[in-house]
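Ticket reopened. Same input as before:
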Amino acid sequence: MGTPLPRDPIADAQRNWERHGWGDVAAPMAAITAIMRTQQILLARIETVLKPFGLTFARYELLALLSFARSGALPMNKASALLQVHPTSVTNAVDRLEKAALVARSPHPTDGRTTLIELTAEGRTLAKKATAALNTEVFGKSGFGPDDVDHLIRVLGTFRRDAGDFED
Amino acid sequence: MGTPLPRDPIADAQRNWERHGWGDVAAPMAAITAIMRTQQILLARIETVLKPFGLTFARYELLALLSFARSGALPMNKASALLQVHPTSVTNAVDRLEKAALVARSPHPTDGRTTLIELTAEGRTLAKKATAALNTEVFGKSGFGPDDVDHLIRVLGTFRRDAGDFED
DNA sequence: GCAATATACTAGGACATCCAAGGGTTTGGA
DNA sequence: TCCAAACCCTTGGATGTCCTAGTATATTGC
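Engineering reply: fixed in the latest deploy. New output:
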């Protein structure tokens, strides 16, 4: 966290794998570990930018999703599916966003089982501001070159489809 | 979670970004979101493999790190730095590993402030077994082609260095 | 030598994620 | 028609991560 290490710990791990006779999976291990660590760094950056807005990444994602829904409202289970998180995580996020008056729960008109989440006016405004901040502070300064971005989108897209995220 | 979506939600988000006039950061946004989601998928796979061993990824990482230390022991702060996690997370992991008799705390011989974490015999055995399982079940079936693995290691390595993880 | 600063670990709290279980609602087949 | 299966959401419990604060030990400077 604080001081940079003298050497890349993941490269060291890769060498350890090779040294122990696991050379055939050393490279994938390093790639996967690098993805884990990169996610950690990116999440920290995102949360730092969102903190002044009183948002976490999970809550921001929900706000952003709602702001793109044509009606500004979505059933909980749809949100869960689109965000690819457990339904209980959505319940948790909605609880907190509702306390902050950024979203509101309302019953589904025809299906008594489902609950609709609707963006409030404040919620829509905050989503806009937070998105602008993320665009300039994180996405606009990703550090990835254009070619690398395209490659990541393609490779990780294939991975996610193979993992069963979507059919396309 | 269960059923695949008909379309890639991240590609949809990218289109939404472009539609709202944020085309200049739409691609990095998609790449970053894909990294977040890929990490989630990989973590779930890893935890599934580790569950039978009574381990989580955090605890496994600590065990693996100790198993590669020449003496089989490391100070807490070293472990925290090498794993790139907060010191309190290491305390948490050590607490649970110690309860399971996989590691043991011992005082540092010369520095009364530091605590050494040492692998027990069972800990070393379990680390071996868990690593073998991860190698065959996760790293050996990553789904990334060799060229993609190399590219990921290079691109994410540059990113992590620029983020201040290491100097190299 | 002693005070001030730095370092190492731990305790408590806030969040997020998942799983298992429970209660209400809808649907579809006997 | 009616009841069982399927579905939707929530609650409670376990884990992990971070932050802030507190305690104990080392090191530095006067």
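Chain A has two domains: 8-51, 54-137. Chain A touches chain B through 71 residues (CB under 8 Å). Please confirm and we'll close it.
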